[in-house]
Amino acid sequence: MQGVKNKIPDLKQTLPPALGISMLSDQSIFVTGAIEGVVREAVIAGCLTAIMILLFLGDWKSTLIIAISIPLAILTSIAVLSAIGETLNIMTLGGLALAVGILVDDATVTIENIDRHLAEGKPTLDAIRDGAAQIALPALVSTMCVCIVFVPIFFLSGVAKYLFSPLAEAVIFAMVASYILSRTLVPTLAMYWIKRHNKASDQGKGRKTFPLFSWFSGFHRWFENQFEKFREGYRDLLGFGLRNAGKLIAIVLGFTVGTMILFPFLGQDFFPSVDAGAFDMHVRMKAGTRIEETARSVDQIEQMIRQVIPANQLEGIIDNLGIPYSGINTSYNNTGTMSAADGDILVSLNQNHDPTNKFIQAIRTRMQHDFVGVSVWFPPADMVAQILNFGLPAPIDVQIIGADQEANFQFASNLMNRIRKIPGAVDFRIQEPNNAPELDITMDRTKASILGINAQSVANSVLGALAGSQQNAQNYWVDPTNGVNYQVNAQVPQDEMNSLDALRNLPILGGTGQGQILANVAPISRSNTFPVIDHYNIRPVINIYGNVDGKDLGTLPIRYRS
Fold this sequence. Notes:
Layout: H1 2-13, H2 29-56, H3 60-83, H4 90-119, H5 124-134, H6 136-148, H7 159-183, H8 185-193, H9 214-243, H10 245-260, E1 278-284, H11 291-308, E2 314-321, H12 327-332, E3 342-349, H13 356-370, E4 375-377, H14 383-388, E5 396-401, H15 405-420, E6 425-430, E7 436-441, H16 445-450, H17 455-466, E8 475-478, E9 485-488, H18 500-504, E10 507-508, E11 516-517, H19 518-521, E12 524-529, E13 534-536, E14 539-548, H20 555-561
Helix pairs in contact: 2-3, 2-4, 3-4, 3-7, 3-8, 4-5, 4-7, 6-7, 11-13
């Protein structure tokens, strides 16, 4: 993606000065943001670990050893992930960020134990060998306990397995690498960088002072004294707890039971929400609205959006109206577009913007008051939500399956009205409305046979006038200068076919007798129909899509069942 951005200045030089190029949407910010998060987490963990080691050991070399082991463990995990075919995605990077805080344990414990043996007066080599060997098994058990927590993830099924398996692999590989480094690299570096302790005259603890920075020695001694007081206080508190074991157990159990009461209030979501700095607003006019009217209404909606979002926070707005021309683009559309009455308004925000959901709530309120009769919902705009919705335009999908479409629609309408009354339910709509206007042309075969007109002539004439000759006969013209084929489509101009009378007076081509018009052989009537029909396992289905606002996804079905 960065390569594309780098090419934009070069492209601008080849275009007229009046033509501008701007980035409307960039999904790569999630990956770059995740990478920045991992780096930031690693730096914070390293700094905190350095402070801890300096405070407890007072040795900058020990701090440096631990700081080296953290990035090496992460790089090892990345190498193994690459070898098994994984990529740096949000889940693997999230696993590495989760593991960073744990990676310091093995190296820290190893350094601390080696330092303890050095404080006892052992030679450096013996202190390193004994200190590392003494904690080898406990450190292995501790590492395996962390890794085994993630093993059940590999037994999941469905989308959860594909989402969380890379996270588990990243954590496990990093933990194993951390343990191996604590058994190999950490003792080796300790051999060269950590020397025997000198007998300290102060406090008789055998702790060495900080020779490089004399100003730190006094602070280190003060910290040691304060920590010793804290340890004595903890020993007294522990003794009090042991003397009152029954009461202590009762308090702990009561606290545990009390926290379980909070479980129903936590809410249930499949994945935490993401502020992508952009949102997609889908609008649907009254069924049968022409694309020109849709564009006019969308322009007014866009002006309202610019009133809600401050100019310094708005990066750009792009409108995509009607059905895509290409069938490929139509197949990839997941916002619910199905006619010229539909439109998508993609709004991009600047980096330092207010919460995106704040703008969505304000726009949703304005739409209900300023644009009555226009349906609006907010499909997922970021790739995380799009993936988690499995290609659907909303996280909630209620399906009514049956052969009777009209009865299904009536039941779906009643059900949707009941769901809308639940607090937090927003953007609920029926994906397959039944109010799209249509003209029914019913051919009178008796009259047609008398006039020598067949059904094919009527169909070809109507299709050719309304949709063009390409519907029933593909015509091509070959340019003699370059040999390129061009498709030729003949159609009655739309401004001439502008009324029902114009359609009734349409000439019928192909008759054997005198020329006839459509009204002589086929009366025309009005009715409503479904503009789109969906199927699930062959059977017709009505979909009720919706979302939640201010509530969790798990609350909605629970409240509806209650």
